[in-house]
Amino acid sequence: MIVTAKLRLMKTMCFASAFRSFRFPLLRELGMGNFQSPTLLFTCSFHSSSRATSAHTHKDASLISKFNSASFRDVDDALASFNHIILMHPLPSIVEFGRFLSALVRMKQYQTVICLSRTIESLGISHNVYSLAILINCFCRLHLVDFGFSIFGKILKFGLEPDIVTFNTLINGLCLEGKINRAVDFVNDMVAGGYQPNVCTYTVIVSGLCKFGKTNVAIWLLKEMIERGCEPNAVTYTAIIDALCKDKLVAEAVSLFSQMRDKRISPNVITYTCLIHGLCNLGKWSQARALLKEMVGHNISPNIFTFNILIDSLCKEGLVSNAQSIIKIMIQSGVEPNAVSYNSLMDGYCLRSQLDEAIQIFDLMVHNGIVDAFSYSILINGYCKSKRIDEAMQLFGEMPQKGFLPDTITYTTLIQGLWNAGKARTAHVLFNNMCSHGHQPDIIIFSTLLEGLCKQGDLDEALTLFKAMEKSQLKPNHVSYTILIDGVCKAGKLHDAKEFFSRLFEKGLQPNVYTYSIIIKGLCKKGLLDEAYKVFRGMEDSGCLPDGCCYNVIIQGFLRHADVPKASKLIEEMVGKGFSADATTTKLVLCLSRNGHPILRKLRNQSKGFKGVNVK
DNA sequence: ATAGGGTTAG
């Protein structure tokens, strides 16, 4: 039966690697030479020269017990332990090595696992289905799912029996690369081979769908799995609850949360944390606090993730001192703040231009050895926003010697800072520098360049870049269009602006409130009030509700062109929606009323309590 | 000993 299943698998799945010869060890054949770390070379050379053959000493015994328990302080500790153990005799079995590799996976040392798998094999230890699943998982995490499939092919060829975990690992690998269709096909192959999908199989697909914005399909699959007799668990529900929260559909998330509790599936700390995050993101603080309480009451303690989410949300609201209180509370409850906690705090201070406080945290992190690449980008951003570009450059320059290589985000931050500081040339040099270091420019850095060129008034160069983007793989998105429309509007070229605005729709892109505000502002400036009003009214039809800024823009247009009736009508409408007049609108209204126009009194009567126009 | 859900920067 098993043999038949295997044969069917071999027939249904066409993996070229499954039909190669196997004279060489598994990983060498895969050409894994580039995964060799210095550690690996070190262990190999030592291994051949001197291996202890005498009976184990006490020291050996403690080394062995440490290795076998697989509880290591950090990566270096784990590698040191490995280097010791492979000099001993007899060597640990694949079971112990498997536990060791699994510990490395928990530390996200995927590349190291791949290297060491080869070392283990070269020591004469044969892999089994467990260790190979670990290896496949590591390839998948590095987005090398096809290498994972090569291992799978060898499992079959070597006569090992893949289990459901092997399949689920590969299915997850496909999902991580967004290849959901291939993942579903593979599930079908698996079923054809006689394996039944379990709750993990479904959950992997559910979370894959969620990650790629197909929450509705994920919800459908949730129902489907129940119908097929596979009960979802807390992990399945949590994946969907999190996706709903990220789509800002917190009410739906809460309803799914109740649904799982009705089914007696207990939410865990991750479920609560996702919901709290969703509520915080929408500024629903009291509900978040209540849930944190509906959580502790169920004997579920907040963990580092929960605390970090609270810290970050408070910082983003500008409430850094409240975030500091959370730090105290977490320490009191035995949860040590980590790099993420401090990075959020730093960013909070940068947001409030309290650079000294941010620098203090950065230095503290350096002192405690927990500073990371995020910390650098955050502080560089802080310096840029506070117009301290030289210090930003200096910090950027220090990164490599401290063991952190700048990534695309670090470059983008600094390039934007340089443009704003008027240092276009340096920005350009830095961009080339980034490309020569092998960082693929993404849509955001192109938008940054586009914005820099427009701000500098170099519209021709901006247009050239935009055209280049259109021809490339990296097509302009709604943000790129918005930046360009802003640029041409400010240059007074309304004809071009209108053209780009309609081209945006033609490309199937969706303008947002910023895009609308910009084009409306441009039209108003040129005195094309009717057209501006038409665009403004067209917003809702295309599913984009005007915000306070949008109202202010169109109102200012009418006020500047002395169309007071239209302006006051729109102010009334704006106030009714809970938005208020900004400083410019207020000034224009006051100006008109000082000139004897009764608009101010009219507005005072219309907007009860004078909410609409804030006059001190 | 192997699989699935949550946090920070442009």
TrEMBL record:
Keywords: Repeat
Cited InterPro entries: PPR_P_subfamily, PPR_rpt, TPR-like_helical_dom_sf
PPR repeats: 128-162, 163-197, 198-232, 233-267, 268-302, 303-337, 338-368, 372-406, 407-441, 442-476, 477-511, 512-546, 547-581
Similarity comment: family membership: Belongs to the PPR family. P subfamily.
Protein name as it appears in the record: Pentacotripeptide-repeat region of PRORP domain-containing protein
Annotated source species: Hevea brasiliensis
